[in-house]
Structures are given as C-alpha cells and as structure tokens.
Amino acid sequence: MSEDRRTILRVGVTWGVALGAAVCVWTMAVHLLGWYTTNLGAGKQADVAALVLPVVILFLAIRDARRRLGGNLSVLQGVATGVVAGLASTPIATGFLWYYHHGINPRWTEYLVAYERARLVAAGASPSDVAKQLDALRRLSEDGAQLRGALTGTFVLSLLLSTIFAVVLRRRRP
Q: What's the CA gap between 19 and 89, in Å, rounded?
C-alpha cells in the first residue's frame, strides 16, 4: 500500500472516530435536554440540526488529508477520505444508538409513536392513515431497519458530501 493510501486511511479513520463520538455526545446532550423523552418536537428539530456534524467533520477530514499530502489531493483521494471517515463512524454511532434505544431510553419508540399519533390526529388524519403511519414508524424503529438505514445513509451521505468537498478542496500535482 502506498504512503498516500495509508495517509488517506489513517485520516479517514481518525475523523470517523471523531464523527462517531460526536454523534454519541450529541445524542446524549439532546436526551439530557429532554428532547428525546418529553419534547419530541424539539428532538426532531435537533435531529435535522445534527446534519451539521457530518458536514463539518467530513470537510475537516478532507482538508486534513490535503494538508498531510502536502497540498496535493485528487478528487478520488478526497472522496476516499470522506467515505472511510463515514464508514469508520458507523460502528461507533450505530453501536451507541442501539445501546441508547435499549438501555438508556428503551421507551424511545413509545415516545415517538405517541408524539406522531398526536401530531397526525391534530392534523386531521383519518384513523386508518394514523394506524398505517404508526405501523410504518414501528417497523422503521426495529433494529434491522435501523442498521440498514445507518449503513446505507452513512455511505450515501459520506459519498455525496465527500464528492462535493473533494472537488472544492482538490489540488493537482504540478
């Protein structure tokens, strides 16, 4: 393996661990604020705001790779750095979120279903629509669905963001 590839791998894993840890810290902060238990509306907004975590960390990872490669970064190297970072974060974040949903806040799905039921009823949804949407929500909250979503979502988001950042940060060798 070339030194450049080792650098990309090292940088990606380092920043991936940082991203995984950031997701864990964010989740606990939101939980401690009660946004995943008693104020799910704020929690849903916090989940959208949490998208800043991969944006910032993947940008920093690719910038760090460029710096460590002496300012020379191809688009492919940038994309590889970001995808490695995203994939390296997955076991940390997914493992923690599994523990969060089963150990720290085992009533999470119950809270979410109650919140969505109230929201749908207030919006005037029919009882059959409410039942269908809540069944779908319960299925999406199962461990297998959460794992598939984490793997697919992380890969797609990492690939998309890394491509954008790699194009912006690329430097060609003279």
A: 6
